[in-house]
Design a protein that fits this description.
The protein is mostly helical. It contains three helices and no strands. Helix content is 64%, strand content 0%.
Length: 106
């Protein structure tokens, strides 16, 4: 019997590390068992759900802000990498000629 409780407690402890916890109602069950109040158990459950939702929203918002700031930094870096365009004309052959001015008439 002791071995069964030991295996059961180890299973509960290791299953809490997974993504989908099968022991979500374990806290309110302990609250009902110790205090005997269902109201207190429902308050315990709802407050834990509220805290989990806040934590998830906070993580989502910080991830969005981080992604947006990285995107802005990348666009600023791209703008500084591209040099400004300078127009120039390349002339290969230059021909020098004499200018013939007509003589003025007297």
């Amino acid at each position: 019997m002791l071995r069964f409780f030991l295996v059961l407690s180890l299973f509960i402890l290791t299953s809490n590390c997974s993504l989908t916890s099968g022991t979500a109602l374990l806290g309110p069950i302990f609250t009902v068992a110790t205090s005997g109040s269902i109201y207190q158990a429902s308050l315990s459950y709802s407050s834990s759900q509220f805290i989990n939702n806040l934590k998830k929203e906070y993580e989502d918002k910080t991830k969005k802000i981080k992604d947006k700031s990285i995107e802005m930094i990348d666009t600023i870096d791209d703008k500084f990498k591209i040099p400004p365009i300078q127009l120039s004309l390349n002339v290969e052959n230059v021909e020098i000629s004499q200018i013939n001015e007509p003589e003025p008439l007297p």
